[in-house]
Design a protein that fits this description.
single chain, alpha/beta, two-stranded antiparallel ribbon, 12 helices, 9 strands, globular
Length: about 325
């Protein structure tokens, strides 16, 4: 049975988080990155369930037993993206090389300013897309996130970028209040960014094949898009190693249609299409996967789906 990501407790203290934020806001990136090495060693030695989840994921995506170097690269990529998130939120994007891949149909949709959903995942660094879009390109971006989970880190990161924080929609609000806030944002022509790779406790879900085994994906993105008749974009911020990132945007659908008949099948089809695109990027950059918990509903992938991926350097 898949684990609940909300059972993961925060592994830091307010003092340590403030220290990292201070260092990331004032010191050269190369100097601050030195802190990553002892941090990664600590997590490899004391990560517990996170290390187990990393090993299980790497075994699945690489199609072989992961070596110590694979586990190091996985945690080092996570630590690097966490640190670079602070640089980006602090407005120090010049320290990073960020390639933007945005096809013409995505550019045309954004130019219409008619409101849409942007689905992202716990993969790479989403802030590279959020901050550049909101501050450098002046796009009307809102973010749906749960302030309660990871509260310490959320509050500290929001202090670094008040402009972005002003348009955060708290996912902890449920029912009509949340629906109204989302409706208002979308009708105002805003791009609402939300995570689509995790299921919140009590939330409806559908099962889709992902990396060879069934996994749960939330129904809410498709229900929201169907109710408000808004297009859906996908975004992936891939860490390429060093200070290099690549952001990829895709038009998933101009409109989501959920017929009354076969509604559940339509939800499953959309979730499977999303899972396929997520798997495409995960296989291209496996060390960018940052769901460190029991993600799948079964322990082992189907044999035909365990082909080894292309390994991208994140050293």
């Amino acid at each position: 049975m898949a684990g609940d990501w909300r059972n993961q407790s925060e592994r830091s203290t307010p003092f340590m988080l403030r220290l990292i934020v201070f260092l990331g806001s004032h010191l050269p990136r190369a100097l601050v990155r030195l802190i990553l090495y002892p941090t990664v060693v600590y997590f490899l030695l004391n990560g517990g369930a996170s290390c187990v989840a990393s090993t299980q994921f790497l075994r699945r995506v690489l199609g072989r037993e992961p070596r110590w170097r694979d586990r190091w690269r996985h945690f080092f990529a996570f630590a690097s993206c966490t640190l670079d998130r602070i640089f980006v939120l602090a407005g120090r994007t010049a320290l990073l090389q960020i390639e933007i891949h945005r096809p013409a149909e995505v550019a045309a949709l954004v130019a219409r300013q008619s409101g849409c959903l942007l689905l992202v995942a716990h993969f790479g660094m989403t802030e590279a897309m959020r901050v550049i879009g909101a501050t450098e390109r002046q796009l009307p971006l809102s973010i749906l996130l749960d302030r309660e989970h990871g509260r310490m880190l959320t509050e500290l990161l929001e202090q670094l970028n008040p402009q972005l924080a002003a348009h955060v929609i708290d996912a902890a609000d449920r029912g009509p209040q949340l629906a109204l806030k989302l409706k208002e944002a979308l009708e105002a022509g805003r791009i609402v960014c939300l995570m689509a790779d995790r299921v919140t406790q009590g939330e409806g879900f559908v099962v889709a094949d992902f990396l060879g085994s069934p996994a749960r994906f939330a129904e809410s993105p498709w229900l929201l898009a169907n109710a408000l008749r808004v297009p859906v974009l996908l975004g992936f911020g891939v860490y390429r190693g060093g200070n290099r990132y690549a952001t990829h945007f895709e038009l998933f659908a101009e409109q989501i249609a959920l017929p009354r008949q076969d509604r559940q099948q339509a939800l499953a089809d959309y979730a499977q299409r999303y899972a396929a695109r997520l798997e495409h990027y995960v296989r291209e950059a496996p060390y960018n996967w940052f769901n460190f918990y029991d993600y799948w509903l079964s322990a082992a992938p189907h044999p035909e789906s365990s082909a080894k991926s292309h390994e991208t350097s994140t050293d």
